[in-house]
Design a protein that fits this description.
The protein is an alpha+beta fold. The protein has helices spanning 3-38, 62-69, 75-80, and strands spanning 41-44, 48-60, 82-94. The protein has two domains: 1-38; 39-98, no CATH class. The protein is flat, with a radius of gyration of 24 Å.
């Protein structure tokens, strides 16, 4: 087998592995969604435990404020331009002693 043939074979292996990982990730995300939809808290299995938690982050668009108002920025204007992003996460870890 020539070097190019080996490289092409490896490329196909990479592609197949990438497809498998994508399918596994889709399955994993669907399984995690079951717990995320059940709500925040700690869940324990025989080997693993999982924690579902909510995180939120606020940010302010200071350029919009400065354009609208100038240098003096009232608190009401900050609140008007506040943005919030929310994500629901799940952490999985191996149980101790397992």
């Amino acid at each position: 087998m020539q070097v190019l043939d080996i490289q092409l074979q490896k490329l196909d292996e990479i592609g197949l592995l990438s497809d498998k990982i994508a399918a596994d990730k889709e399955q994993l995300d669907a399984m995690k969604d079951v717990f995320k939809n059940a709500g925040e808290g700690k869940y324990e299995g025989s080997l693993y435990c999982g924690t579902v938690y909510l995180s939120a982050r606020d940010s302010v668009d200071y350029n919009a404020i400065l354009t609208e108002m100038g240098v003096v920025i009232p608190k009401e204007l900050l609140a008007k331009h506040k943005k919030q992003s929310v994500s629901i996460n799940m952490k999985i870890s191996r149980r101790k002693g397992k």
